[in-house]
Design goal:
Four copies of one chain form a homotetramer.
Chain A lengths: L7 E3 L14 H12 L5 E4 L11 H14 L5 E5 L5 H14 L3 E5 L10 H14 L4 E5 L1 H4 L5 H8 L4 E6 L4 H8 L8 E4 L5 H6 L4 E3 L7 H12 L3 H21 L1 H11 L16 H13 L4
Parallel strand pairs in A: 1-8, 2-3, 3-4, 4-5, 5-6, 6-7
Chain lengths: ~300, ~300, ~300, ~300
């Protein structure tokens, strides 16, 4: 069986909460319907931008279920099902598979960071891939895990028939090149995990991205790629540079609370954060307003 | 209501697993009974050395329950109930309280590290303390959380009537002094979280410790303090230095798998690790054997 | 007076030493003459790859003098004259100016890292620029200084009439974009400081590079840019990817000793390192041999 | 020849500058005479607190000369003569020896950090020790060098007849223990390099310290040790804790500029800093005033 190819932009969907901290499923569905009308290629449920570490199992499964039920069948539904233990990850991945998720995105286990060397990583991803009912993708996000996967481990894992690809969130083009040159299986999907490197990533041959910014500016994120694919590199680059400060604001600068506020401003329902994540303050909101205006998004 | 004072040594108990990855509750109980006969002051269930990130809720609660049922009523039973979200932490803490845990040890939430600044930490620990049925202790373990609590936050939290103390695992005496001098509530318990600083910590006035080494060498860890308390500082220091390389081996050098093997060698049941944590290899075992021999423990 | 524009590739020239540790000026001149015949745009004397921290003042000045005397007048001669103190930096910069260096590249002072914040950096570069007889470039190389200049500081300094540009050695395309978008003076030259990002840097509008790899493969480094400028992006990208592992070997993997050995293999005179830098060993040489063969350079 | 033993407190002497940036030798001599009347065991010329990276060779030698000429012959004069290259270090060390310095303190070379592994460190310190006319001490100061020497390297070097000891500035008691247990030559002097760990270091058997705080509070630093040696540990600990916030202010918090201001307040001549190091501002001065008052030093 050959691996399917992933192309285009997928948002790691935010999870709107009510003021009391409950998931606001209606707001989530509202967003889904809006995103579904854009040219996004698919959706990631329970990613880093979904406040996933704060969601319990039932909530995650309900969000996956709603997503699968709501979006066009042509759209790819990915579920973030990585947990610290191998057995819990397999269990949750297969629950997600049963609900219709097409593939699972798995964060590197990281609590015992010193013990999660190459051998432990190889074992973990192989064990899950061997036992998962859907293909898996590696999720390399050093900012959160404090672990950076090595090119040799990726190359080794890329040949596993049930390992579909990797999302690398470093935003480091040189690192993506290193992965590309490590001897990857030709069918392995290397995705860039941040809008901060989107146009440069396209230049070096990357075809898909899962990026926070696609929550609030889905069409613009898609356009960077369409323009590039049509040979209009100058326009693609210009659009990417215009979006760049917005991406900074909703990731490095203000994180998920900033992203949720930008979603509010751009017609989506950001909702509250869940504690201990603090909601964004008045002054920060003003800065985001200005950044969006400067980027001609509002 | 005044805060009770914690004195002595508590092991953050290992969780033995069977080869198939299930918790080996019999082995756990075996260890408990052995530890119970020593002069340990109490026990921490579901700490970092318990492979807690790999345990599900039911397993954690069962381990708490067994501990409360098995040990002398004079011994202090602490439960590690920190989770990423405030609501989940409160929920689990109160479940543990209901089972008889005397206090809860709460890891700083850390996935969104950039967002867990002073304000978020203050809010989190205050929210949990306000809603917990038992007192809580802060668990500052930068090695795992990549966050280091500031003296001003600790000082602020120390006056909360339901915040009993803090375990600091830095092993950094100068940092402990900084906490002591930050204006702590006089009833606040400052515990050292590693045997690597045990005798020096006693010197500066620390009275209690939760430390990995107490799993395999409980009596020796207690003796460092007894000797010190009896004014036999030279002997206390010498014993501490003798244990030091053993502690290195079962923490920094080989981690939990090394600790479990040392437990095996010293009459306890270490059991298997749970995946993705790898069991210790043959060569590493040999090194630990030698270190224990050199320390005259076997 | 408007700033001149820098375009093309400049090697941060290695300094060959004799076995006894003396500078081998003849070998240096041999290399210079060879490089001078290529399409390199200019030369950096006393950069990081020149073992500059090991050179005394007289040696640096002699190397600058030889370079100015030896190369075509159309080639740009830069001198690395940054020292920890402002006064020493001004002194050495003006000595270099007197010898004919066209501009100076200045490392951020870094010993007292905590004290070298934005204000100290602004003051330092402004003080030197105010007093230097030639234009200066900022040298941002976090790997060696453990300090990363902020976009706002660069933007501020870019408007100084005597600050010509900056070499950023991060190899991080997203960071280069951040600098580009920070409000730089339009005449300010932003150079990329490593071959690991050369083709992607061209894509985002960078025009020049100072890179270690240009010591051993000058023409190939130039070709990446020529192909790109001719609209042959696919060929430029392919050449860049072919060179990528070589660059890794002569920078991150084996450092200056590796670069010197690659120079030896490719017709230049690498010479010995100066102590405490160790010469490369036999096994490392074999790895470099293989990497160069695989890249079809030998 | 056996190694001499170092005991007591030595200040790494500040270098007062005039407003124009010249060394203020008169102020330096003023301080020397004042310190000479205390119970300090000796002096370090050209240490980290001396703004040494900003001093040229002639200035360093003049400071060494003045020190040797001015202080009691019973006091130990150490000179900081470490430079990046082995040959420069040997040269400067022997110049210092010729002027009468009793031993030299050598910073680990660190510009090419990745290349300064165990082997390079062993080679560097051995080469210098073999060729130095006076004994040398290793200076391990990770804060500035970003390199931490390993116990095995220290242990290995400790047996060299011309390597007298090491100043470890980590302030980490557990690390000092690790060095003590690494198999050091019994005559090797292990010094603690910061007042933040002074009393705890005495507890574990350390006999000497080179510490910034001794510039402004020499007698109090000496008293911590005298009280300890007289068996008055509680008083020694109390004094150490009283000084602790002052030490924080003149090191981690405000660095050398803060130390110089505290010297001014306490009867010494701090003088100006040399650029690019910024002088301390008005608000910072106020904080230091308060800290000194609280510590009952003014």
């Amino acid at each position: 069986m050959s691996k399917f190819q992933i192309k285009g932009v997928l948002p790691p969907m935010i999870t709107p909460f009510k003021e009391n901290g409950d998931v606001d499923y209606e707001a989530f569905q509202f967003n889904l319907e809006k995103w579904n009308k854009t040219s996004l290629s698919g959706f990631l449920v329970a990613g880093s931008n979904s406040e996933t570490p704060y969601l319990n199992e039932a909530e995650k499964l309900k969000l996956i279920d709603i997503t699968v039920q709501s979006v066009d069948r042509s759209k790819l539904v990915l579920a973030g099902t990585g947990l610290e233990s191998t057995r819990d990850t397999i269990y949750l991945t297969n629950k997600a598979a049963h609900l219709g998720a097409r593939a699972a995105l798995l964060l590197t286990p990281n609590y015992y960071g010193d013990a999660m060397g190459d051998e432990a990583q190889l074992q973990y991803f192989t064990d899950v891939a061997d036992n998962a009912d859907i293909p898996i993708l590696i999720y390399n996000v050093t900012k959160f895990t404090h672990i950076n996967i090595s090119p040799s481990v990726v190359s080794n894992l890329s040949t596993h028939p049930n390992i579909l690809g990797m999302k690398d969130s470093s935003g480091n083009i040189a690192q993506l090149i290193k992965f590309q040159l490590s001897g990857l299986d030709p069918e392995f999907n290397l995705l860039v995990g941040t809008a901060s490197a989107w146009n440069p990533a396209l230049q070096i041959g990357i075809k898909a991205s899962i990026m926070a910014l696609a929550n609030c500016c889905p069409q613009a994120c898609v356009d960077v790629q369409s323009l590039f694919d049509e040979g209009r590199q100058a326009e693609s680059l210009a659009l990417y540079k215009r979006l760049y400060p917005v991406n900074e604001a909703v990731t490095a600068q203000f994180g998920v609370p900033g992203l949720k506020y930008a979603c509010d401003l751009l017609g989506f329902k950001g909702g509250y954060t869940r504690k201990p994540l603090l909601n964004i303050g008045k002054e920060q909101k003003k800065i985001i307003d200005e950044i969006l205006q400067k980027a001609q998004l509002i």
